[in-house]
Amino acid sequence: MNKSKNTYQVIGVMSGTSLDGIDLAHIQFDIIEDKWSYQIFESETIPYSNDWVQTLKNAIYFNVEQLQQLNMEYTQHVALIISSFIKKHNLVHINAVCSHGHTILHQPQNKFTLQIGNLPLLGELLKHTVVCDFRVQDVLLGGQGAPLVPIGDRILFSEYDYCLNLGGFSNVSFEQNGQRLAFDISPVNTVLNFYANQLGFAYDDEGKMASTGKLNTNLLNQLNSLDFYQKSFPKSLGFEFVKDIILPLIEKTNLSTTDKMHTFIEHIAQQTAKALPNPKGKMLVTGGGAYNTYLIDRMHHYLPSLILEIPEAKTIEFKEALIFGLLGVLRLRNEVNVLGSVTGAPYDHCSGIIYN
Description:
Layout: E1 7-15, E2 22-32, E3 35-46, H1 50-58, H2 64-88, E4 96-107, E5 112-116, H3 120-126, E6 130-132, H4 136-140, H5 150-156, E7 162-166, E8 169-176, E9 179-187, H6 189-198, H7 208-211, H8 217-224, H9 227-230, H10 239-251, H11 257-275, E10 281-286, H12 293-302, E11 306-309, H13 313-332, H14 340-343, E12 353-355
Parallel strand pairs: 1-4, 4-6, 7-10, 10-11
Antiparallel strand pairs: 1-2, 2-3, 4-5, 6-12, 7-8, 8-9
Helix pairs in contact: 2-3, 6-11, 8-11, 11-12
């Protein structure tokens, strides 16, 4: 695409590990003298049906044939949702649909990652330019394939010392010695929602249920001493970590569900504080966990010299869709959209597949 072009209208599409649904955001990007700005217009999250939630949770156990079938069905599902969004909001001048897909398997150590919903069929069904599958190239280069959001943090949110996302997992990005660094910190909503579900809720509203629990220091110490937290970055987490390590450890205890949630929030807050090299200045907090008042309070407790800034709702809820929109635009411009300093790849590169 012509680099002299300085305005882009895109749809950013994201489905996260917390299985809240598919996020869609109609975004305008403007670039003037190398300075990017954005506006989020129409945006919505289309929740998954119970059947889709169960299928996506269980897909980690599928064989190759089942995964191929799921990929086809999911691509059709996503295409229908995006088409409905375009039609509903009467969007006519769209330069591209920039879609992350949904992560089923993430095994960078085996040079493998699978985000379903990124088949050529998506472009055929939408009849729009599609940019997708942003992670695979990085993993093949020897990177972690994650996190990919930090380049967007650098370009769009440079006024913050840290950008923290509290989604299914938490991740942070920041500049150090002229390099952008970023890594996953800990599970967040993948675990908290699991226990909220046991109490009959989709999630713990403002952390109210967790706040009524009691701290179990034995469990907290066991969580804090897990191998992942001792590793240096780059490092990333997948649902396998929750399924194979975190939940079995918590389930070995005979604590009440609220005690488990309470203790896990303390764990998240402590690991977040531990992850920041110089916790001063301002930190942008986004993702569903930004609404968990109790979690934010516990972070304040461990980060007294840091201002935790929670932006307006659209940026909280659609930041990942926003940044995958930006990654798509950068791919169309053949500009770097993945930072090797973040993923561990040997160099920065331009990633993503384009379907015209």
